[in-house]
């Protein structure tokens, strides 16, 4: 039997699934976007019978800091206007990079809440926005591939996971890849949360930060952090108490973080002493096939089957 979870996050409000012909907005809250990749991603969305519209400042590049897709105020305005537009059913991020933290506090979260739930998709730096939608708006979101990224443009299973989640969410209630392995055996129930682990650590101490992962199923991944930096990130989460009482942990990909044997040893060293059920290589993040993972949805993590099974579909 699955043990009852510790007191933890409640399920969040799920948005409605998409229908053919739905209008979806593409925004760039973080890094600048290569036009050819953006165009290729838009073609895929049109092939799904969606009507994508590109927010005005997506093509921008900050005049001083080229890693940003334009000014903070412009990126925030794009996201808020797309979210508050009643004709838009979903907001999809073009890419990650860096910059979401710079604009998240410029958003009018009262207006965002009033606009109601919509589908929101992204990963990497977009973790800062996933956390904000959860904590400030009470909305479930999708940790999924972004429109102008290689994994979305080149990998069919990655595309299909997102497409199925958007249009037929009942068909993707059980998530995982055959390569998944057991870290700590067991079965845990909780509400999903997480994303890019460095962004979760970066949220600590900020005014609207989630108090911790207690009672939740934590999904974490990362890219381009050497093992010693991952050690620092995980140790900070441990020392702060943010991981106290977490119900279970699912690990995604750790691309460009060094030899995986070294990364794996570090993950086990830092996380297995928590003694909660854990699975590695579940199949999300920057891996060759990146599954779409709902955040804010009740689920069961089962190490016998090495899967995450949602209690309800990701979208209504």
Shape: globular
Query: What does the average pLDDT come to?
Result: 95
- Pick out the low-confidence regions: none
Judged by helices, strands and strand pairing, the structural class is alpha/beta
Strand order of the largest sheet: 6-14-13-8-9-10-11-7
Topology pattern, helix = H, strand = E: EHEHEHHEHEHHEEEHEHEHEEEE
Please report the number of helical segments: 10
For the sheet with most strands, the description reads:
8 strands, mixed
Distinctive features:
316 residues; alpha/beta; six-stranded mixed β-sheet; globular
Descriptive overview:
There is one protein chain. This protein has 316 residues and is α/β, with parallel strands linked by helices. The chain is 31% helix and 21% strand. The protein has helices spanning 35-47, 72-84, 100-103, 109-115, 127-137, 150-154, 156-167, 197-203, 227-239, 260-271; strands at 23-27, 51-54, 90-93, 119-122, 141-143, 174-175, 181-184, 187-196, 216-223, 248-255, 278-280, 293-295, 298-302, 307-310. The protein has an eight-stranded mixed sheet. Strands 2-1-3-4-5-12 form a six-stranded mixed sheet, with helices on both faces. Strand 4 (119-122), helix 5 (127-137) and strand 5 (141-143) form a beta-alpha-beta unit. The longest helix is centred in the first third of the chain and has 13 residues, at 35-47. The radius of gyration is 18 Å and the shape is globular. 52% of the residues are buried.
């Amino acid at each position: 039997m699955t043990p009852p979870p510790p007191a933890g996050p409640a399920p969040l409000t799920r948005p409605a699934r998409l229908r053919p012909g739905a209008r979806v907005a593409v925004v760039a809250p973080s890094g600048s976007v290569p036009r050819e990749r953006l165009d290729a991603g838009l073609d895929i969305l049109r092939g799904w019978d969606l009507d994508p519209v590109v927010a005005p400042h997506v093509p921008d590049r900050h005049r001083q800091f080229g890693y940003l897709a334009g000014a903070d105020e412009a990126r925030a305005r794009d996201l808020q206007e797309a979210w508050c537009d009643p004709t838009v059913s979903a907001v999809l991020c073009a890419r990650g990079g860096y910059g979401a933290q710079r604009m998240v506090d410029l958003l009018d979260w009262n207006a965002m809440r009033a606009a109601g739930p919509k589908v929101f998709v992204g990963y990497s730096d977009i973790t800062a926005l996933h956390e904000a939608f959860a904590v400030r708006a009470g909305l479930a979101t999708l940790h999924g591939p972004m429109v102008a990224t290689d994994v979305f443009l080149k990998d069919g299973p990655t595309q299909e996971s997102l497409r199925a989640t958007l249009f037929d969410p009942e068909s993707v209630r059980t998530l995982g890849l055959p390569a998944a392995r057991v870290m700590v055996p067991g079965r845990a129930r909780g509400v999903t949360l997480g994303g890019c682990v460095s962004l979760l650590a970066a949220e600590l101490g900020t005014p609207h930060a989630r108090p911790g992962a207690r009672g939740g199923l934590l999904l974490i991944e990362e890219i381009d952090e050497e093992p010693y930096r991952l050690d620092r990130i995980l140790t900070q989460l441990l020392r702060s108490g943010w991981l106290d009482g977490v119900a279970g942990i699912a690990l995604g990909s750790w691309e460009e973080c060094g030899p995986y044997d070294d990364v794996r040893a570090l993950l086990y060293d830092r996380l297995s002493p928590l003694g909660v059920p854990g699975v590695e290589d579940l199949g999300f993040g920057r891996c060759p096939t990146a599954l779409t993972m709902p955040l804010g949805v009740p689920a069961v993590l089962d190490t016998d089957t090495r899967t995450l099974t949602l209690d309800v579909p990701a979208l209504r």
